[in-house]
Amino acid sequence: MDAITKTRKSRQMKADTHQTACVVQTEDLPPYGAEIEDGVIQKALDILASRIRKAESFLNSPGAVRDFLRIKMTGLEHEVFSIVFLNAQHGVIAVEEMFRGTLSQTTVYPREILKRVMHHNAAAVILAHNHPSGLAEPSHADKNLTETLRKTFSLIDVTVLDHFIVAGSECISFAERGLL
Q1: What's the CA dihedral at 9, 12, 13, 19 to 10 degrees?
Q2: Strand order in 80-86's β-sheet?
């Protein structure tokens, strides 16, 4: 082997070693995956929460409520029942997760919801829960619960504006379907 060939091979080995070192270094970085996506989702939720605190009118349309609930509830592995508490002008007072259940059901206690409605001095509420199964269709129990809460709250002049069911990327509205 002549001197020129040795020099070329030496340079090639150094380049290969450098490339290998770069590959090893990138393997040390966290993979793009669930952890990063969860961080992005959490940041989006933090931004939405700060907007709710800053401007009561943030959830001012069914579409805005639907988007908020989709972000908040999509991907949960258990059923969650939440309430959006609203003032007389339908500005957001608070959003609270009231009950957490299993994969296919959660127990909802109207008395506990009533206590929180009175605590917030809410004039109206939006009900929401998720179906981890991915099927957004309201069950008979969902319809009965909505009607029970609507009747209960009407006794104290609190309006149930809507009930949303989030299932995967789908989010249905009882009001839009004429179920309220």
Answers
A1: -170
A2: 92-100, 80-86, 124-130, 159-167, 170-173
Per-residue pLDDT at 81: 92
Closest CA to 88 of 25, 24, 145, 161: 161
Which candidate, 132, 67, 144, places its Cα nearest to that of 108?
144
CA 142 to chain centre: 20
Local mean pLDDT, 10-residue blocks, the chain (180 residues): 57 50 47 74 75 56 82 83 91 88 78 94 94 86 93 94 89 89
Residues in the chain: 180
pLDDT at position 61 is 74
What's the whole-model pTM score? 0.67
CA nearest neighbour of 101 among 70, 141, 64? 141
CB 80 within 8 A of CB 101: yes
Q: Give pLDDT, residue 37.
A: 78
User: CA-CA distance, 34 to 11, in Å (whole number)?
Assistant: 40
On whether the CB atoms of residues 125 and 93 are closer than 8 A, the answer is no
